[in-house]
Structure formats: structure tokens, C-alpha cells
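User: Show me an example of a complex going from sequences to C-alpha cells.

Assistant: Sure. Here are the input components:
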Amino acid sequence: MAASYALGHGKQRSGRTYAGWQPVRLGGMTRTIQYRKRAADRPMETQPHSQPLTGAEVAIQTAAAAGIDVCFANPGTTELYLVQALDRCPGIKPILAVFEGVCTGAADGYARVTGRPALALLHLGPGLANGQANLHNARKAHSPVVSIVGEHATWHIAANAPLTADIETLARPMSQFVLTAKSPDTVGQDMAEVIARAGQLPTGPTTLILPGDIQWAHVTTPPVQPQIAAPAPPDADETERAARALRAGQTALVLSGSALRTAGLQAADRIERATGCRVLTPTFPPIQDRGIGLISPDKIPYAPEPATQLLEPYKNVILAGAHEPVAFFGYPNTRSSLCAEDGQLIQLCSADIDPATALAALADALDAPAVRTAPALPRPEVPSGPLTPANMCRALAAAQPEGAIVMDEGATAGFAYHGMAGGAPPFTYMALTGGSIGQGLPCAVGAAVAAPDRPTICLEGDGSSLYTIQSLWTMAREQQNLTSIICKNRAYSILRWELERAKMTPGEASLALTALDSPEFDFVKLAEGFGVEGRAVHTTEELNEALQSAFKNPGPLLIEANLE
Amino acid sequence: MAASYALGHGKQRSGRTYAGWQPVRLGGMTRTIQYRKRAADRPMETQPHSQPLTGAEVAIQTAAAAGIDVCFANPGTTELYLVQALDRCPGIKPILAVFEGVCTGAADGYARVTGRPALALLHLGPGLANGQANLHNARKAHSPVVSIVGEHATWHIAANAPLTADIETLARPMSQFVLTAKSPDTVGQDMAEVIARAGQLPTGPTTLILPGDIQWAHVTTPPVQPQIAAPAPPDADETERAARALRAGQTALVLSGSALRTAGLQAADRIERATGCRVLTPTFPPIQDRGIGLISPDKIPYAPEPATQLLEPYKNVILAGAHEPVAFFGYPNTRSSLCAEDGQLIQLCSADIDPATALAALADALDAPAVRTAPALPRPEVPSGPLTPANMCRALAAAQPEGAIVMDEGATAGFAYHGMAGGAPPFTYMALTGGSIGQGLPCAVGAAVAAPDRPTICLEGDGSSLYTIQSLWTMAREQQNLTSIICKNRAYSILRWELERAKMTPGEASLALTALDSPEFDFVKLAEGFGVEGRAVHTTEELNEALQSAFKNPGPLLIEANLE
């Protein structure tokens, strides 16, 4: 179902809060949509101007009007008017990254933690290209990441200058909506539209391409107050269909999106207690509230065999904000779906309905018991001994402070962590959503920008870290309370696991292309090269000590965990 | 004009050299094409097999049959059958990079130096995305880079698993030809086609998308001997049109492609002596033979004002393998073309004709004097004193050994180098072609793989280096004779120059987004973190000494040049 959205198309003057909340319907919409004003909506921050605004200023002030207060940027010449617009818009803080994948990954982390649209500023086609892998992850996470990409002046595109590329085509695979500004007079509307399309359900990355001559033109139309449509209310028929399945038994409930935040988990707990259903999460949830007081549903395993085995008993699989559980890869003689062959998939709610709200409605329809504090789960003791992956995961689960944000891109080394952390003090968990490794460090950077007072932790594979290792510099520049634990096992272990799984005998090429040991990476030196303190640990005791030190002292720290 | 190409569609058996050189015409071709066997074409390297080949093996052996002997790879699970095929194809050496932009940039450098198609192996859409910025540069360099991108099994794509993306759409902006394999039985033909489309004029990057089930299927059709069509012969009418312009005077001759290799420069020298024309090169030539014995044409300047001034006197501008000289960016109140408004652009030859050959024919048509050894140009003395950008450039031009390959991504700090190096011993020069910074280090890696016995030098901006800093690890792993000089000026200086040029007053955001000084990067530690020796120099004397040491000792070295 297409999303509804509402844009401020009405005329307005700079400095006034826009009040014309006209709902605009997209093709195919028949549902009645109710709009509410979101906390993110606030009066536009504008300054008195002695001359008309530029197109770039209208775009940036429209973003500020939507509550966007940070811009993760790696600009070039074609974005200089946007940079100048940031100079004149103190409400948006520019944060520099030295690689675009850090910008888009950080915007994703920021959006996941705040639940609001986040902004990335990128340089033409190649800058967008470098940001695309983490936009792919953002798309799979349904993160409202708004990218502004500078483009040559419209009249210069045909000259096919060195930096010319087909930006729109490039953007489409990773953005759910792409728009090229066509006129300086509509740039405010354009910006408002990409923000609305990102920020309202179904949320996801969108891209605005802004040619130079549209950026530098002086325009007469003021910035626009973007209107992000509120979610549609739960649908009684959908709720009843799910309730029937739950009453029939043999039902699993898979949560994602807002269903994995506190209210969603509490509603799922009510439903579980009322019906005995099995509550599960995807292998890689975008963001999940966890720890003491909350239920800790099992993850669907990564490997298709145990995943299929887990889901086999369930005749009905209800999806609350989650996609159908499918295998990560298609292997010979397997199938895509992980659910029982005779099972039935039930979508709890349409894409424009908030899954947590739908779960609460479902719990009510089931006359489920009230919200409770979930029983405490065991927390690992502080471990000791050889630094195995399991001990590393235990050490983190035992040490993480209350309020932590844990970004998990630990891959094979970190697989055990999720199951161990349910008994930790309340925290927020995030995972790699699109399988494009190199999301962990940038996403943690964005999370730490969104919540500077919360300790942020990134559990990061050594191979994965290297795609966006430049993130470390932004951690240092912003003096983030961010602890990166590099799980150093000196290999793309997941590939060696996949070779074994496929019963392939690795030859010279297979060994060479999965090894990260010749030479070894020195992550302490890499950290220091980027301005971050680094510490190598070789025993579990050393790791425990490093974690204590990390959570006590401000600023970023990288821990190179040399795994056995 | 569309390229001609010829593929081995005829039936053949594994192990036999393909002999049926059937020319295949593309739509619109009317010209008679002559084919010749290239040095790169050689009998297929195949091994006796006890069972039928897989689709992946047919693809890899088809690449080997085209003379491809290196694969720059960052594979994932969907490429494991291709990796296994490399295990069984000793003729292709796999070279691992830990970021895909290094793979594609290295393939570009390899292709520029060898003049032959180079292979990159990438992981699904996100892996391709990470390689796209350097494929953009390769496209602007007309480098025959062949990317193989693994894809989910065809039946798994609809499941929309985490790594699923629209790879074809993503690939198109940066590849001149994109093909998704549709059947295991035609995978050899598909591979031969992407190689041919990359390797014959007009050369450029191409992409083959290879689904898992096509990789792992056992196929009955053998590998194919790719046929790369030889260039078309010069066209007498085109030659005569250019000769008329040259005879009329006030003519500039802009060289690129093969026109910048030794034979092309010698022919241009003959033409210059016959007609008094001005010979020029683009601001960023893909690859150029230089040094003692060769003419050293001036570059068209980067800034539009001096470039326009340079070209103003020329009524005719003949393009020999070059594109029309256009401004790098479109600025307010400027135009795209750099040529005189009443000037005439003349294409020396169509895109399927070799520019160096066309230049030789043109020289003959003009009864130009014979090839000579060009008069020696001055070479800078070994400089001393403060480490200014000019002294850094002088130091390199004074020290570089015979046979060097110099990759120039020095940006503002390195702008003076090109003009100083004409009197150095014979060497090969390469530049950033598509404006997507982050090409220098990877391109140098590929050049050093192509010519391991030649000293390779990368003059690299500090900001630019950080996009693909992971290149250092591959330098260490391959123990390359590669010296990277990082021009450390602690800023995106080109952007500050552009701000000044546009008379913009930088505010807080403009300053923050162009500064690389808080914290400073420690490139020596970064190098060591990746396994490369690093050395910081602060004076010209220290730089001179570091360069001497670099050219004397084998293996990679990074020199952090702290510029005044």
C-alpha cells in the first residue's frame, strides 16, 4: 500500500509557522488518514535576511523546520552553496566525515535512535555512490535518511564534465524516493517532500538532487514547513484476523520496527501471556529496546537449517513490522522461506500503520493481561580465561552500563552476544540490517551524536570495520563516548563458515581471499592514526579492565580484542 | 558510433584454441571492420576435469582465455563459486583488497598500464556500490575494467533478502555495458561479451552480474575464447578534414587515450613541427608517456579562466582521443566550453579508431618530418628549504627514477608537479580522471601489480587518500615497490580555493567542513596499522632523503609530507 503524505503546499512567509495542514493523497489511497503534529515539527528557525534567500538556503531551512538538527556531510564544490546555507542556519550542526559511507551510516544510526529524519550531504554521483552501501542498510532498516546530493548546474550537465554521472539512476536502488529539483521556486516543496517521504510510514531513505544553479538562485518562495503524516490507526479487520490465528494456537509473532521498542515489546508480552504464542525477532533487528524489565525474544538464527527448524512448528506466522523470514542467501537445494511449507503468513498491519500501536490493539482484542515488568533474565558473571568469542560476548554483556546503545556488527565473533545480553541493565540494541558490512562504526557514530550522554558501544568484526574505518576520525573530532570493540580473528570468518557449510575444499584462492593475516592489521595504530585512543587486549581479564576504563572515561576508545 | 565486436559464438571444446573469428556486427555498423589477433589472446588455460565445469568455472576460464591474469577481489558468499573457480584456474592470480573501491581502482590502474582488460570481483549490490566511485573514474579514463558481481540465486531474488538490491540499475551509470547472465549454458558467451565490450574501442568499464544458481550449475558448453575487435583503420575523410584545419593555422591539438602514449606523442610532434599547431593535454590525462625524448605538451588548466585564455587564440581545436575541453564545474556567469566562442571543434577520429594511429596518418597526410627524439627539457635541481608544495613537486621531479609510474592525485598541492616533470627520465604519468577523489592509491596498487619491476609513485592529497586508505594493506600484502607521498596540508584545500574563487566568506560550517586538522591525521600510524612502513618529513631535505631511500629499498613506503 502506498504511503499517505501531507505537504505544506500553501503559501507562507518566512518566520511564520505553517498552519495549512492539507492532507495530500497519493494514487490508490482510499483509507481515511488522520494527521497529528509530531514532536519533531517546530517553528522554522530563520534569521532576518537583507536579501532574498538562495535555493540552497530554502532547502536547508526547510530541513531545519522539520526538526533536522544535524547534517552528516562530505561536501564538494557542487555543494558549496548548501554549505554556505548551513553557515546561516545555526539550528543544523554540520558533522564532517572523510568518507561518504560514514555520513550515510551515521545518518542511519541517528535516525534509528531519534526516530526522526536524519540528513546526509553528498557530492554528486561519486559521493552518493560511496554512501550507497550504507543507504542500502538504511533502506533495509527502514531508516528515514534524507540525502541531499549536489549536481552540476543544469546547463552544465550536457557538457559531460569529469564528475558528471546519472545521479538519479544511481540513487534509485537504495532510495525509496528520488527527486531532482527542477526550479528554484519549488525547492522548498521538493525538500519538504523528500523529508515527508522519508519520515512517514513506511519510512526509509530518500534523495534530493540539487543542481548548482538551483542552489545559487535567489528565490521568492520561502522555506516550507514539512508535514510528516502520522501513522494510520490500526485496522479492526487486520487485528481480528491476527487475533483469530493467535487463538487457534501454533502461532509465532515476529517483531520489528516499533514493535521492538519498549511499548511494542510490552504489548507482545501481553499477547504471549494471553495466547502462549512464540515471540521472535529477525536475525538483524534495526533497533530494539532490551535489558531488565523487558522480554527478550529469541532471534531467528542466521543459518537456514536451525531457522527452519525453529519455525517448523508454527502454522501461523504473524508479522508485526517484520518482513517474511527468508534465508540470507539462496543455497543449492534450499528454499527462500524459512517458515513451515504449509504455514500461513499474516501481516498484522499495513505499512502505514505503526506496528507497536497495532500490537497494543491486538493485545486488547485478545483481552490480554496488563503491561508488566518482565521477569529478570540471568546476566553473565564477569568472565575470565582465554579470550574466546564467547568470553568476549560475556564480558560485554556483564560490563555494559545502564542506558548503553550497542551496535552489533560483530558477525561470527559476536553471534553469541545477543542471547547473553537480555539480563543487562536497560539498553538499546542495533544490528546490521542489509548485510552490507561496514555499517557498525558509522551507525555507532550517528547513535552517539543522537544521544551524546549515553555510552555507545560498537561490537565490530575486523573485516567489517575496514570498509568504513574512517569513522574513527569523526568519533575523535566529536569526542564521542563511544567504545569500539574490534573482534580480531584475522579472517573473513563468515566466508570460511560458508565454505565449510557448502562442503567446499578451500584452495589457494579461497584461502587468500578470506584471510586478513598477512600482514595483520594493527587496529591500535589505525585508531591512533585517526586520533582515537587504542588498546589491544589478549585475555578476558584485559578486556574486562579495558571495558571498565572505557565506561569510566569520556571520549572514544578502540579495543582490539585479539580472539583465540 | 557504436563499437564493433566479435565474439566466439562458434561451438568448441574445452582445451582447443578457438579459431572461428566470425565478426559480429552491432546495430548501425556499416564500416568494414578488420580484426587482428591481439597479444593478449592466447590459448585457454584449462585443466583436465573429471566432471563438467560449473558456470563459475566457465566464466573464469573465459576471462583467462582473454589474457586476464589478475582478479582484484573482495568476494562474499554469493561469489564463493567464483572463488572456487579461481582455485582451479592458476592462470588468474587473486588479489584481495579489504574495500571494493580499492578493487575497482586497482583494476583501472592495471588496465591503464597494460592496455588490457582487468578484472574486479565484487559482492552483490553493496559491493558494487562501494566500487562505483572508482568505476566512475575508470569510465572517464576509458579503462577496460570488467566487474563480475555475484547475485542471489535467481529464485531467491523475489524473497527480498537483506542483501537483495537492483544491481543492474545500480551498475548502469558507471558501466558502459551491463549484462545479467540468464542461463548457465550461455555464461561463457556472456563473459566473452563483457570482456569484448570493455576491451575494444571505445574501451570502458563493463559489468557481468552472475546469479548463484548460474555459478553453481554444471554446464555442458565450454569456455569461450573472447574476441576483442581491433580498432578500425583511420578514415581518409576525417584525416583530410583535420589536415585542412591544421594547414589553415590557429589550431590546437588536444591529445588523450593512445595519443598520449609514445607513438601518439611522436606523431603529434611531427604535426606540430609541420604546422606550428599547439599541442595540449586534458587537465587530467588517464595515462601519458613522459620524460626525456618525448614532447611534454601543456595541460589545459583546471580553473576555467586561465583555460579559456589559453584556448582563446585557436579557431580550430582538433580532438585526438580527447573530449571537448569543458569546465570542471559550472559556475554562475560562466559557460561549459573552454574553447573560443567562434571556434570549431574537430574530432580527429571516430570512437572505434585508435587515436595514435590516426595521428600518424594525419602526420603522413601533412608530409610532416620524421619521428625524432624531442629536445631535452630542463629537470629541476634537488631542492632545499621549507617544504612548500612547489618544493615537494620539485623534489619528486628531481628524484624519480627511470621507468617510474607516477599516479598524480596530489590535487592543489601537486598541481605544479606535471609542469616540472617533463625533463625527468622516461616515465609514465597517470591522473585522476573522473574527479572522484580516492582513486590515487588504488590506481597505484593496480599499476604496481601490472609492472612489479617498475617503481610506482603515488602523489596523493591527504583528504583524497582517506576515501580508499585501505589500499595500503594490499600494498603491504603484495610487497609492492610503491611509494605514496601524502601531501598533508590539513584541509580540503580545493574547496577553500573554490570558496575564495566564488568570493564566499566561509562561516563556521564552511570552515568545519573543509578542515582536516582537528584532530590531525597521523599517516605514519595509519600506514603502520595497514602493515606499511611510514615516515613523516617536515623539510625538503628530509623529503629528498626519504625519496632516495624509497627508490633504493624494495617494498612499499608511505611518506607523510607535512607541507607549509
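The lines above are the inputs; the final block is the predicted structure for all two components together. The CA atoms of residues 472 and 530 of chain B lie 6 Å apart.
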